[in-house]
């Protein structure tokens, strides 16, 4: 009987090994299909006719440098803290079946991975960009890596300002020049606002960065960057990016009333806050209305611009709307409180999620941080800009801000001023709790 049990156990083990080998060969064959190959070697930014400059202060890293010790699973493209069995099926190579055995040990030695945040600054956007970075630093938990694309004349100002920030060992930054493909640089530079279309080329420049949060300069974080970063783990196997709708109320929507080109969903999407799984973006072949052949990211941008440049108003954002109109399965849509703009309150409150939970990310487009048209937005901007790191957040930020917000109740946005501090209050409370625990 014992001999029979041993033979049965041996057969079972051989069968399991055969099954594992079959899975690995299947994964290998899938990787060799179009769009399923391993990521090619990173291209240096100079391929776009530019150069890179590493910042100082926070031990700034070289551009495009990937995470050190990224494990044996080279194509992992969500986040290392997700369990292996929760990852979509298309993020790993043939050896990833074996990775589950090593993932826990990796996490014990790499407890927190960096969050990559990119911004593009041109013209008079230095102060606004620095204020955005300050808001990201205040509440975030995991280490941050800033990728700052700026005109050459702004680099020294960025370095001198950022090097004076306290960083507590959790922040690095890299400065980059504004770079476009050399054969069409002039055309991209004049699209919409100066430098705005730079964001379209981030997956091609930062070739070794797996995932990235891009934000406009007029963004303010009212809760940790970690929380929007966590949406990467909610992507299904087809989703490559996440954005918020352009409008909640179709009656005041721009795209559904005026657009002369395709756009995503009912009211379009806003690209001021854009979370990207760039590994997936680089791999994907996109459906389009120019050719029956699907095109990759680097192949589709210029043809899209040539076809629609006379019909687009908002530049690169319009191109993204066209792209995701044809590939709606590739977009994860997050709620409006993650990209709260004046449109959500100047005609009456129309972001229900913000009314219930508060504003998570404030987007001061229309220049509202710098004029008196929307004093509620300007009050939040001034409060964060003037806050000194290390000061008590309640007495130096929250209470003075609430007093200023009460003065704006004569405006539509001021009437709902509590949504501007509801989440901020929680973020300050949570930060105090984390500090008290050491």
TrEMBL record:
Native organism:
Galbula dea
Q: What are the annotated GO cellular component locations?
A: membrane
| CDD domains xrefs | GT8_like_2 (cd06430)
Free-text function comment from the UniProt entry = Glycosyltransferase which elongates the O-linked glucose attached to EGF-like repeats in the extracellular domain of Notch proteins by catalyzing the addition of xylose.
**Membrane topology term:** Single-pass type II membrane protein
The catalysed reaction is: 3-O-(beta-D-glucosyl)-L-seryl-[EGF-like domain protein] + UDP-alpha-D-xylose = 3-O-[alpha-D-xylosyl-(1->3)-beta-D-glucosyl]-L-seryl-[EGF-like domain protein] + UDP + H(+)
Sorted alphabetically, the keyword list is: Glycoprotein, Glycosyltransferase, Membrane, Signal-anchor, Transferase, Transmembrane, Transmembrane helix
Q: Which GO terms describe its biological process?
A: protein O-linked glycosylation via N-acetyl-galactosamine
Instruction: Please give the name of this protein.
Output: Glucoside xylosyltransferase 1
Q: Which GO terms describe its molecular function?
A: UDP-D-xylose:beta-D-glucoside alpha-1,3-D-xylosyltransferase activity
* Disordered as annotated region, ranges: 34-70
The family this protein is said to belong to: Belongs to the glycosyltransferase 8 family.
Q: Which gene encodes it?
A: Gxylt1
Q: Cross-referenced PANTHER family, in alphabetical order? A: GLUCOSIDE XYLOSYLTRANSFERASE 1 (PTHR46012:SF3), IP22168P (PTHR46012)
The cross-references to Pfam families, in alphabetical order and at most eight, read: Glyco_transf_8
Q: What is its EC number?
A: 2.4.2.42
Q: Which InterPro entries match?
A: Glyco_trans_8, Glycosyltransferase_8, Nucleotide-diphossugar_trans
On the tree of life, the source organism's domain of life is Eukaryota
State the top-level EC class: transferase
Q: Where in the cell is it found?
A: Membrane
């Amino acid at each position: 009987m014992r001999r029979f049990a041993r033979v049965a156990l041996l057969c079972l083990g051989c069968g399991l090994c055969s099954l594992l080998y079959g899975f690995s060969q299947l994964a290998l064959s899938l990787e060799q299909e179009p769009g399923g190959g391993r990521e090619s070697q990173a291209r240096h930014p100079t391929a776009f006719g530019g150069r890179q400059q590493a910042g100082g202060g926070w031990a700034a890293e070289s551009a495009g440098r990937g995470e050190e010790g990224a494990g044996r699973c080279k194509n992992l493209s969500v986040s290392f803290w997700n369990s292996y069995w929760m990852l979509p099926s298309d993020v790993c190579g043939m050896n990833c079946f074996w990775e589950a055995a090593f993932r826990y040990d990796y996490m014990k030695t790499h407890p927190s991975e960096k969050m990559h945040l990119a911004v593009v600054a041109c013209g008079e956007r230095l102060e606004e960009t620095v204020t955005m970075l300050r808001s990201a630093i205040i509440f975030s938990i995991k280490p941050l890596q800033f990728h700052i694309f700026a005109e050459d004349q702004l680099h020294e100002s960025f370095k001198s300002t950022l090097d004076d920030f306290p960083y507590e060992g959790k922040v690095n930054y890299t400065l980059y020049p504004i770079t476009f493909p050399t054969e069409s640089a002039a055309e991209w530079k004049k699209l919409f606002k100066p430098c705005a279309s730079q964001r379209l080329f981030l997956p091609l420049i930062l070739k070794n960065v797996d995932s990235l949060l891009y934000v406009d300069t007029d963004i303010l974080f009212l809760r940790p960057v970690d929380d929007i970063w966590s949406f990467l783990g909610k992507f299904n196997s087809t989703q490559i990016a996440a954005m918020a709708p352009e409008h909640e109320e179709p009656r005041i929507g721009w795209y559904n009333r005026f657009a002369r080109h395709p756009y995503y969903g009912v009211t379009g999407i806003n690209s001021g806050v854009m979370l990207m799984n760039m590994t997936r973006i680089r791999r994907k072949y996109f459906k389009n209305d120019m050719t029956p052949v699907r095109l990759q990211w680097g192949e589709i941008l210029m043809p899209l611009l040539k076809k629609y440049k006379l019909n687009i108003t908002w530049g690169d954002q319009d191109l993204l709307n066209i792209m995701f109109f044809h590939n709606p399965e590739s977009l994860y849509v997050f709620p409006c409180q993650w990209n709260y703009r004046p449109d959500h309150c100047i005609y009456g409150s129309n972001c229900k999620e913000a009314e219930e939970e508060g504003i998570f990310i404030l987007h001061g487009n229309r220049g509202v941080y710098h004029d008196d048209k929307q004093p509620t937005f300007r009050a939040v901007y001034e409060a964060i800009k003037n806050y000194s790191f290390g000061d008590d957040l309640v007495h130096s930020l929250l209470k003075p801000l609430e007093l200023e917000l009460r003065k704006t109740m004569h405006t539509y946005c001021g009437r709902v001023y509590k949504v501007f501090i509801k989440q901020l209050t929680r973020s300050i409370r949570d930060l105090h709790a984390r500090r008290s625990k050491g």
